[in-house]
TrEMBL record:
InterPro entries per the UniProt record, alphabetical: Asp/Glu/hydantoin_racemase, Asp/Glu_race, Asp/Glu_racemase_AS_1, Asp/Glu_racemase_AS_2, Glu_race
Name of this protein: Glutamate racemase
PANTHER family: GLUTAMATE RACEMASE
One example of a Gene Ontology biological process annotation: regulation of cell shape
HAMAP family: Glu_racemase
């Protein structure tokens, strides 16, 4: 840990196992364009959704440490699996030793906080990766805030692959999109709000909407995470002062730069330049 960096302002770090976090970064930059950002994608070891708690925690810890070393005081885990499996351990066990003044925030809590205003009948569905569903993070967080809400979840193991292989708009995707939505709605036909609990899933929204009734709300996380971060910085001026504001954004990947640039442009609708980085 570079202790001398602890008082020098730096960018906001945004971490994801792959590309999905770019949907979060996109909304954050829309809401807070003046800040500087470093996006780090651990694409070489993605996806995280099927990995064990221990492995996800270890990989996420390495990424957080790397972003701290690069000068970030605040890191957003723009990955539901990392938020579900690693966030609490990092906050409780690692931050006090690394630097108690630094912060790591996830995407699950901000998503859950908006539920109370959106659901009319207290029946919520969650579509996510196997890891996020298995962790039960969404029901646990929802019940902390809204004890009476009924939560049903279904894992969508194929959806990340559809997005990462640019198949999300093709006819072949329909079968898998309809399959998991039908599974969810057969678990609880009263669901009136569906959370997309994976940052890749917003890219499937046009097709998801085809198979979900119009009176069911579909929650895509980006805007809620962005609003929550805006609010967080307003409430913590001491952290806001540690964030540089030149409107810059740098991208790093553990995979081949070329592959990342190509896929990232699908998520961001712009060309970006990216540097390779190693995590250990």
């Amino acid at each position: 840990m570079n202790q001398h960096l602890s008082n020098i302002p730096g960018p906001i770090g945004v971490f994801d196992s792959g590309y999905g976090g770019l949907t979060i970064l996109d909304k954050i930059r829309e809401a807070l364009p003046e800040y500087d950002y470093i996006y780090l994608g651990d694409n070489a070891r993605a996806p995280y959704g099927t990995r064990s708690f221990e492995v996800v925690y270890e990989f996420t810890r390495q990424a957080v440490n790397k972003l701290f070393d690069m000068g970030c005081h605040l890191v957003i885990l723009a990955c539901n699996t990392a938020s579900a499996k690693a966030l609490r351990s990092i906050q409780m066990n690692d931050l006090p030793q690394i630097d108690p003044a630094r912060r790591v925030l996830g995407v699950i809590r901000p998503t859950v906080e908006c539920i109370g205003d959106i659901s009319k009948n207290q029946h919520i569905g969650v579509l996510a990766t196997a890891g996020t569903i298995k962790s039960e993070s969404y029901p646990l967080e929802i019940h902390k805030l809204f004890p009476d809400i009924q939560v049903s979840g279904v894992a969508c193991p194929m959806w990340v692959s559809l997005v990462e292989n640019n198949e999300s708009q093709n006819d072949g995707a329909d079968y898998f999109i309809r399959k998991y939505i039908d599974q969810l709605l057969s678990k609880d036909p009263q669901i009136d709000t569906v959370i997309l609990g994976c940052t890749h899933f917003p890219l499937l929204l046009p097709k998801i909407r085809q198979y979900i009734a119009n009176d069911i709300s579909v929650i895509s996380q980006g805007e809620y995470v962005a609003e929550s971060l805006k609010d967080y910085l307003r409430r913590h001026p001491e952290m806001d002062a540690k964030c540089t504001k030149n409107g810059n954004c740098q991208f790093y990947t553990t995979e081949a730069e070329e592959k990342f640039s190509e896929s990232a442009s699908t998520f961001l609708n712009q060309q970006i330049s990216v540097k390779h980085i190693t995590l250990e």
